[in-house]
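Exercise 4. Each item below gives a protein and its sequence. For each, produce the structure-token representation.

Item: Cupin domain-containing protein (Flavobacterium jumunjinense).
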Amino acid sequence: MSSEKWNTLLNNTNRLTTPAMQKEILSAEECELFLDLIAKSTQQFAKEKKPYNGLKVFTKGVQDVSQNEPFIENPPQDNESLKEWSTRSFKGEPFGFIMNFLENYNNTIVEEMAKKVAPLIAELGYPFAGLSMLYFMGDYGYTPFGVHRGSAGEDGVLFHLGPATKTFYIWETDEYNRLTNHATSYKNVEEILHAATAYILEPGDAISFPDDMYHVANTEEFSVSLVLDYRRASQGKVKELIINELLQVNPDNDTLLNHIPPSELLQTLNFQNESEQAVKRLMSRLKSNGGFMKPSILSYSNLDLQGTYQLKKPFSLELLPLKKQQSTVFARGHEIIIENNKELLDFINLINTGAPINLATLNIGLQPETLGFDLFQFLMKVDETEILRKL
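Answer:
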């Protein structure tokens, strides 16, 4: 996914504020990769057997919750494609399948998407509520819930993975409201198609449109589309995110307040300075994880002390001062507290260059309460976040 194509999409959409399509933004190989990773994410969702948060299954044009349990009990198998699984599960009947929050279920799909959208982030910056992914699958014809618009503050980029084509229809808001009397959604799609702009998406194409524009898709043959949400969020949501970080800025400072005038309260609490630190924490958390808010899924560290490792770009280790003797490091959205010793700080600077590092050349020790042991413990914690690649 080249910077040139992202720049073209950003220019044509006026930086994601107007609708436009970009041809061949993904190669055939990239489409196949994402289809495989979506299948793995779907499989993991089922394995966790959690409530059906973010899952919607449609049959006969309506949501069918009776399909949830069969999916959980019989998800895609290893090496089974989404097409093969859907044929087995729905026996050739038209269906629609929507799954949100793919980043909750697979680290690799986040890694691949973060690489692909790095040029977008370089131009627009990190969205305060982070990036998120969902996908649509099926042969359901028009979107089952009709013409609709997205969630407020979520500017979507839809990557069509195929294998068939998808037709996307978008209405100007004023015209849609005139035709539908301001309906929040509209199922009689063909009555108003004459007023929409149509975009025919082939595998590898992408389309972007702002959150307030009404749209619907028509998927006559089995296809899968992956949506990346760039979540600007409301002021209230951003305040909530900052407050959550603010509570972690100086947690040990919990001394009782003396009676003071209300006009002195914010100054006494050092609120301005600590709020600025909270914003830095939020942005460091996002930057360390390629713009995704959900931290990576932690895995068991199998660190090879003779091995060579490299940072997975575009992720980074983000360092923030914590106390005189300590700092906070964010890795794939996770927070790690470290002692400020030279071995650790030099390693963080070195790994962030992207250069391969042979661990045998580092001063790693296994004797507790030594600088080398601090480095060993830090490497173990960092490795658990899956921010490193073994070469």
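Check: The chain has a mean pLDDT of 92.
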